[in-house]
């Protein structure tokens, strides 16, 4: 793998090797469109919302309580509550970028956290203080290393955006403590929740200190050998069932599995361990092919927040945790940098638009923890000021007892510009499309600047204008042609106007660009029916609508007469069409059931002569999945039943006439 | 409702009022066929198997330990383990019937139990002894009244089969204790697990003592007012969310809900409370129409063994607990006696053949606890001598930590002859079909004897021969025409050879019968496709096969090349046909997936031009659902995917060719 000397340091992930070189937040700016709006809401609403809630529920105060020796009595929240402050700090640092508008908040939170760190670097408010359980006495559930991992990521974010500060120093002390405690000769264990691994690698990348990388590699190698207790959910829950390099698919708790895989890629890249990288790619392939929802969501078990069996992807039981979406993007991004393969950017795009973007409400002050693809009953609106149980996400809630998702979304949106584009010796690669300005230097200090303009994802036209090219030599602009264009035609228009079709994968233009040169990519953004592999039993006989990278859904608030979504039948033989305001209209029928004349038994002989559905169709309005549940309690479904004769056949005769029935009682 | 003076006392359920009068075990004998074989296995294998296991796991010893004051140290099994001995005792009593071949076993077990009863009648080995929690300190989970209920049913069974004995005396003392403790002025509570209610009513019927009935009525009225704690699963789990007479559907823990409903019918019948009876009928209707599996199985949630939401009946998540099947038969039988409506016998038949008969292995020494309708992976064979976790029923297990099902199946098979037929002033009604001999007396001491011969359920011909009729006056023989005949034609042939078609419901022949008269019912027993209400999302696009009352399934052991059931597609346009040895053969295809050339993404645009399935069909062998998993580890499915174009379309192209893929790593 090629050496990588990043020109920028403002990077969430800065591998020293890889096919592609990441561009920093000082090289890529998002200037408008879908993600600019989301990032604006994140900066102006979500970050402060998270800060205030953690103050209010006492998680911030835990650190003070620890410093004052009363934490055993006064501590609030779950074992991992500390990590939410760290994720928030990381988010603030990346959102501030090099501008640093959030410096005051960062300083204040750092000041709140600092006093709780012990001289040896250990920092956790749930263990090790007078009256508490001793440190690392519960590696399965204690989350101590997991918390240290998020602390380290926050410290790295500060150093990369504003230079090393107090937060970075705290993080380094914590990392030194972890190495001293879990290094050779130390505790032969791993944390029940991975997360420390990618953090230590990133710190090694920041500082150049090998020992952090060695410790991460040690954690990766140790896992899968049963050092953790075989608990209620089995060792598979925390991936301690099988060594990382021997596993063939992601399994167990989805967030844990994805964080671990991300850390394994980081270690593989830094140590040149291609076998390990190959193992993770193999696991990603099997997971995407068999254990991933249409939205990119991962995890179908509520009980243990875990992946289900192959092809067991029931939409009404989709857990699809927001944090698993965040972790999936982390993994895909690392694999993209390592391999250069566009399929990783394809999954990241799908997951960003349909999971990460779905979690926060329009106002950025309420969140989905899990992201079901089918909800049959309207839920009550969670109260503004109460903490919701974590998976009761019929509607977005302002905060959760386990509130990992809000801060995870916040830090991801804050980092987002870094995921748009990369560079290599030959030029610049565009992976995600948004209005953006990109400036970097290629081989030999060759300065280039690009300006991207697009209406994506509502439209499919992407214009890339070369604003600057400091050399007369040829270089390459690569554009990802999304996998979702398969079956339709995408066009690329060169600066000279030459127009050619391009296939899913990568489209390239190589030439001696001059300022003002424009490349145009035209993607076939239009609604189309999607069907699933027939082995996905749970969606047999249904179709879904996708438009560009966006998955659509039917939401009850768009149905007439207060109907719920179970009345919808669609006609897959008629192509769905664009409706007003980003909606899609599908031909279909509304089959209202007369519950007063219900059949007494819901199964009946197949009637070959069943009447075909009447010819008349009505337009069913569909909206982007990420936008649902912003208009009050509603029901929703992504997979829409296709019309069949039996769906409109009369119900079976009541075997005992309704009137007759009650007269027989008490006679 | 009409007064009921049963001619027989050998009855599991002996209401004093009702449309129909039950016939006792001394009036109905099963002489051959399907149920005779099952009852023979029950008598010769299952009863002893249960007795030996309870000895071996120490549940029998608990009573001795209680008598000796060391039960706090030595007790084995869950809180409700006592009840398994009582259910076994009840089963032995009914199986012994008036013959009493099992008297020695009954006496020995009674002797084991007796010393643990305290002078005030309380009998439970989990509470109230030195070193244990005090009596009734955990009404939610303690199961003390539930255990007393099964003890009382065992005592009633002894009295009704062999006359009042020691076991009956113990039961009466326990019942007196319950009335004294929970009656007016006593503890204002109910048991977390219903069961005491029908038991007290049956004891009142046996003894004529009103106070047992009053106590049962009190328990029914008390429930639903939130006297139980709002625990992990909510008050709905033990039906304490809503008064019985106000509920509109069965909900919460399925066995609890059904036992409670059965007790409510008993109370309603004895007290003439027609509103209560009407409420239970309404709940039964809604439950059967919206919350019941094709097999008659009830309960779709593993987590709390509960009913799911309306139409949420995923076959692969079917819990369909065996004991819920037993409880459903209890409820249906009571409603049949009260109302005379054949639909209750229809559900009982479906549940007996497809749930109760499915639980025990052919040898009667292993059992299903839950009865899934779809299993994707072969399970390991539970070891002969180990106790299985309760719901891990990929294969039948010899015993469970929560082993309610084996003894519940045993007592149900023992009682079975009592569920075949009833009588009223005008004659005899046949509800279930088996080779049997029926003798009873009608109005005015008119003696009648009937002999039933049939090959049911393999065949549909039922011959009823009048062996005796002591009066020359006319009387009526009624035969249930099963609901499953809807859409086909059933015939009835009178003694004089007159042949007429009969509709689902009841067919009657009234005349002055003479010895030798024969009636023949010809039921259209042949395989046919069944489809579900389109609101059952989980089985959309699939069909099932039913043949007479039997639900069929595809089992992997009948597929070629070691395939699992997920490769099957059937052609609903071709009628399934009878195969050899009670099998059914359906036209279909086997779509083997080449997992080496898997698609990287399981969703793809709907291709209107998808290739239609090839014309060639192969025969898919189906077997009765109750018989599955008797030939080693296998996979199974009841709902079979119908062939569609997309089920045979080629997989989508890999967006990155497999070969290309790995070369990009580590390059």
Automatic annotation (TrEMBL), chains A, B:
Residues 428-524 form the Non-reducing end beta-L-arabinofuranosidase-like GH127 middle domain. Residues 642-667 are annotated as: Disordered. Residues 529-641 form the Non-reducing end beta-L-arabinofuranosidase-like GH127 C-terminal domain. Residues 27-417 form the Non-reducing end beta-L-arabinofuranosidase-like GH127 catalytic domain. Residues 658-667 have a biased composition (Basic and acidic residues). It comes from the Bacteria. SUPFAM superfamilies: Six-hairpin glycosidases (SSF48208). PANTHER family: DUF1680 DOMAIN PROTEIN (AFU_ORTHOLOGUE AFUA_1G08910) (PTHR43465:SF2). This is Beta-L-arabinofuranosidase domain-containing protein. It comes from Streptomyces lanatus. The lineage of its organism: Bacteria, Bacillati, Actinomycetota, Actinomycetes, Kitasatosporales.
